[in-house]
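Supplementary Text 2. Reproducibility record for the structural model of the 89-residue chain.

All settings were left at their defaults, and a single model was retained for analysis rather than an ensemble. We include the record here because the model underlies the residue-level annotations in Supplementary Table 4.
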Amino acid sequence: MILSSELPLVLIFPMYTHNLMTLAKRIGLYEALSDEQKDLIDILTPLNLQARYPKDKDEWAKSLDKRRCKNLLKVTKELFEWTKQSMRK
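Retained model, structure tokens:
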């Protein structure tokens, strides 16, 4: 049985942030990210914030054509799988 004292603090008390880079740093994956993965996180974080808080939705939606959305979805899935594998180690 794992005691709460053995778990990282972030797993005991959830963080209240939508900043993906902050989350990567807090769970100890930031240093393992490639430059490409860090760039992707830099792209995804504002999209995540704007989707949750759509004040300027029309502005950012203009930059998201079908091709870009398909590519972002593809690389995001790859990052998600990498993240899952990295957290199992």
